[in-house]
Amino acid sequence: MMLLQAFVTALQLLTRIPLSIPGHDPDRQAKVAGYAVLFYPVVGVLIGALLVLLLGLLQPVWQSEASLLHAGLLLTGWVIVTGALHLDGLADSADAWLGGFGDRERTLAIMKDSYAGPAGVTAIMVILLLKFAALSELSWTLWPALLVIPVLARLQVVLLFLTTAYVRPGGMGASATEHLPRKTAWAWLLLIAVAVITLIESGWMLIVAMGLVFVVLRAIMQQRLGGTTGDTAGALIEITEAVLLCLIVLST
């Protein structure tokens, strides 16, 4: 029952898919939050599958002159499924990075501000433009990449919570990092990485790029915050997706 609760929690955190289960136990919420992290890549599979389904529906006319419109529809579906949750984290992170002036407490305070500043709006525009441009060049033959990219982006958060302190005390993020089953999570990371390299064409390239993005962004988080927050985790997801999408298109 707890694993089912963990899966539903992950789905509720990472998407706008309306799903809930009866009998939720508040006393186990902290432990459920930790186990939910293990299901982040599984939620990525669901997101990727929905994107591939939409791509398949558009595929008969994908290479027509309306391909830009189809890319826009695919990107819109992507944003709707995720509820723009990670874009919000990206915007908050960009505003905080620019406006924090290197001060940790000021940076954290800006992240709490619900209003998006110029840096946040610009970051969202850049990421969406990169995704849109990449999707407009994406052929049906590359559907495995579209399936796996949301998985790898959410796998980044598993790695982030394994290796990086959560800087805000209390809340679900702190509970998730504290109660994450670490040995299982490391095994899960290794299994998914091996599967991607083995089963996906150019999978090794995706794993290497994913690792580079992680190292760079984690270093920025450590330098500025001394750890991570939910907002920076969302930014990591969005940037990873954009980089991997562009890489796949450029490599073909």
From TrEMBL:
In alphabetical order, the GO MF annotations are: adenosylcobinamide-GDP ribazoletransferase activity; cobalamin 5'-phosphate synthase activity
Q: In which pathway does it act?
A: Cofactor biosynthesis; adenosylcobalamin biosynthesis; adenosylcobalamin from cob(II)yrinate a,c-diamide: step 7/7
Write out the similarity annotation: Belongs to the CobS family.
Q: What is this protein called?
A: Adenosylcobinamide-GDP ribazoletransferase
Q: Which GO terms describe its cellular component?
A: plasma membrane
The record's subcellular location field reads: Cell membrane
GO BP annotations listed: cobalamin biosynthetic process
Q: Which HAMAP family match?
A: CobS
Q: What is its EC number?
A: 2.7.8.26
Which metal ions or organic cofactors does this protein require, according to UniProt?
A: Mg(2+)
Show the catalytic activity: alpha-ribazole + adenosylcob(III)inamide-GDP = adenosylcob(III)alamin + GMP + H(+); alpha-ribazole 5'-phosphate + adenosylcob(III)inamide-GDP = adenosylcob(III)alamin 5'-phosphate + GMP + H(+)
Q: Which Pfam families match?
A: CobS (PF02654)
- Transmembrane spans: 32-56, 68-87, 115-134, 146-167, 187-220, 232-250
Q: What class of enzyme is it?
A: transferase
Keywords assigned: Cell membrane, Cobalamin biosynthesis, Magnesium, Membrane, Transferase, Transmembrane, Transmembrane helix
Q: Which PANTHER family match?
A: ADENOSYLCOBINAMIDE-GDP RIBAZOLETRANSFERASE
Q: Name the membrane topology term.
A: Multi-pass membrane protein
Protein role: Joins adenosylcobinamide-GDP and alpha-ribazole to generate adenosylcobalamin (Ado-cobalamin). Also synthesizes adenosylcobalamin 5'-phosphate from adenosylcobinamide-GDP and alpha-ribazole 5'-phosphate.
Source organism phylogeny: Bacteria, Pseudomonadati, Pseudomonadota, Gammaproteobacteria, Thiohalomonadales
Organism, as annotated: Thiohalophilus thiocyanatoxydans
Organism's domain of life?
Bacteria
